């Protein structure tokens, strides 16, 4: 972990804004080991693992129903345009990982869309990528949602998402998935 | 590392047969930390890193011109057909990683062809995948080549590779890149 001040050149850092929802968070405090509303920096070659095993996972989910390692995120550069992106891989043999409407089985991987909803079990993670220049680091920032995020992505109905009018623009405060007015959707 | 006897069900394990060549191997013994002609088993979720840093890299290259981590191999399952494969990612900011004729810059990744020649600096690695069933483990097996492997892949000339007649079939003895008769190519 390196603070921004230690970077050699001043450059922006790609950030994954991750909004988490679990219906029993209030009761079970599943996300209690995560730092909320705070950017955290990882080296470009680090694999960001999410799961139950605190020895392996950078991001720990305190839930006996979660796999040792549930899924992993990796930073990479696109082959043709050098755009920075992330790959997600399902590391759980027990449960599917759903990226928007795409089901990933164990060891399946896919490049993460710019904005997407990740689901497994009762978990929902809305992930939005904020573009940056650095190839040495990336950042994560977590936010907690009080309500289900499915509405945000229209996922149960598999309706197409309009080009505009639904996604609140990403600002320095991160995503605000629960502030969508019904008139907007 | 787990021996085959400890696997729950009897199943074959995907193996990467890797033939290594470096023009100064005899003099510098760059590959002295690798086990040759012996299958080594890794967990499916392990990232097989090749490079100079013994603390990070499973496969160590004893060469000051090599990056801390030069490249990484990862096991995965294809999304549509569940075939097992490998992804290769260039982890070096200093040198390109060339997969057959495709140049990977830092953090570029590509799915590894069934058989391919990897190059960086003076290094040449011919990698051939032997299919297996296990989704829990994969294996590696190293062999040393005495002569350059470029001839094997026709790479400097970028000639098309015929469907048959050039690739010696993979058997339990692994690849034999230096046994190709000139009449075969």
CATH class of chain A: Mainly Beta
Query: What spatial form of chain A do the alpha-carbon principal axes imply?
Result: globular
**H-E string of chain A:** EHEEEEEEEEEEEH
Give the number of domains of chain A: 1
* Residues in helix, % of chain A: under 10%
Portion in beta strands of chain A? 25-35%
| Assembly level | homodimer
CATH topology of chain A: Tumour Suppressor Smad4
Low-confidence stretches of chain A: 156-185
Give the strand tally of chain A. 12
Mean model confidence by pLDDT of chain A: 85
Instruction: Kindly provide the radius of gyration of chain A, computed on alpha-carbon positions and rounded to a whole number of angstroms.
Output: 16 Å
Subcellular location (chains A, B): Cytoplasm
Family (chains A, B): Belongs to the TIFA family.
Protein name (chains A, B): TRAF-interacting protein with FHA domain-containing protein A
Main location (chains A, B): cytoplasm
Report on the structure:
Two copies of one chain form a homodimer. Helices cover 4% and strands 34% of the residues of chain A. Chain A has helices at 25-28, 150-153, and strands spanning 15-21, 40-43, 47-51, 59-60, 71-77, 84-90, 97-99, 102-104, 109-111, 115-120, 123-130, 137-144. Chain A is built from two helices and twelve strands. The first copy, chain A, has one domain: Tumour Suppressor Smad4, CATH 2.60.200.20. With 185 residues, chain A is mostly beta strands. Mean pLDDT of chain A is 85; it is low at 156-185. In chain A, the strands form two sheets. The first copy, chain A, has a seven-stranded mixed sheet with strand order 2-12-1-11-10-7-8, with no helix packed on it. In chain A, strands 4-3-5-6-9 form a five-stranded mixed sheet, with no helix packed on it. Chain A binds chain B through residues 44-45, 47, 69, 72, 75-79, 82, 84, 87, 89, 91, 93, 102, 104-110, 135, and chain B through 44-45, 47, 69, 72, 75-79, 82, 84, 87, 89, 91, 93, 102, 104-110, 135.
């Amino acid at each position: 972990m390196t603070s921004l001040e230690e970077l050699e050149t001043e450059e922006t850092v790609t950030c994954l804004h991750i909004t988490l929802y679990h219906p029993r968070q209030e009761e079970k405090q599943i996300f209690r080991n995560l730092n909320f509303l705070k950017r955290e920096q990882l080296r470009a070659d680090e694999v960001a693992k999410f799961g139950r095993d605190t020895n392996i996972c950078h991001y720990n989910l305190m839930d006996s129903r979660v796999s040792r390692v549930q899924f992993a995120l990796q930073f990479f550069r696109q082959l043709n345009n050098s755009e920075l992106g992330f790959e997600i891989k399902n590391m759980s043999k027990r449960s599917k990982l759903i990226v928007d409407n795409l089901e990933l089985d164990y060891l399946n991987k896919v490049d993460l869309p710019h904005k997407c909803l990740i689901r497994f079990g009762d978990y929902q993670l809305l992930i939005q990528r904020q573009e940056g220049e650095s190839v040495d680091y990336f950042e994560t920032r977590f936010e907690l949602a009080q309500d289900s995020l499915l509405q945000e992505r229209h996922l149960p109905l598999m309706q197409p998402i309009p080009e505009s009018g639904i996604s609140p623009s990403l600002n320095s405060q991160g995503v605000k998935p629960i502030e969508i007015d019904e008139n907007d959707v």
